[in-house]
């Protein structure tokens, strides 16, 4: 059970992290607008390309594969604290935000709309959510 003061701090952290992530995804890391719209609508196309390349220590691979998972783990940790821990509701909220962010990247031509990014982002969210649930279960068990 999350205490009200913990819920408040988690909400502040969630909003702050969301704003930071929006900045990273649209403007950070030297992102400049493209001349064309970039998108991938075919699931696992980008993921398979990176896995086939086999260069697992390159900066591009780390940013795309590990980064797209890792930076979304905090959402899986914080959202249950703020919204109560119901996976169905929270994954809907999470996916809504990710889709909006991907659409913004497409429309503003600052990045690409990539269904694989959404798959990796959701993997990160689910990892964080699983860690939260495991920790919550451990705390609720009597010693």
UniProtKB/TrEMBL annotation:
Domain VanZ-like intervals: 17-134
Protein name, UniProt field: VanZ family protein
Pfam families in UniProt: VanZ
Keyword Phosphoprotein part of the UniProt annotation: no
Keyword presence, Nucleus: no
Organism: Paenibacillus mellifer
Swiss-Prot/TrEMBL keywords: Membrane, Transmembrane, Transmembrane helix
Membrane spanning residue stretches: 9-29, 61-79, 91-107, 119-135
